[in-house]
Amino acid sequence: MWWWWGKQTWSTLVDLVPLAVAPKTVAPLDQQHELETRKVWSSVTNALLVKDWNTASKAKQALEQEQRNKAEERKKKGETYIPVYFEPQGDDWTGRPTPTKAGRDAIEKEFTASYE
Fold first, then answer.
1. Within the chain, how many helices (H) and strands (E) appear?
2. What digits encode the pLDDT tens for the residues 56-76?
3. What is the pTM (predicted TM-score) of this model?
4. 32 burial type by CB count under 10 A (0-12 exposed, 13-18 middle, 19+ buried)
């Protein structure tokens, strides 16, 4: 819905009600790569699920600090971070990532795998 300033009417831009939610199937945590988002952030997610805001906040801060430390270490060594699954975009970012061969392989693996 959107509301136009000065007008008293609402209009629907996109009706999401009839859209079906596609179920997601992902590998169990023990089968995921060490840097898989669900695995990396699982401590935060688990704390949020039990409404332990303090633990979630501390886990989030620890993860972010670890990422900052790794970035600083790379900077000191003069290393450039190169993504594994996506092509670096630089200043030509279009908003649509381009997967590398490793990225395409990972996507294919997820589409063909079956998890219980």
1. 4, 2
2. 999 999 999 999 999 999 999
3. 0.65
4. middle
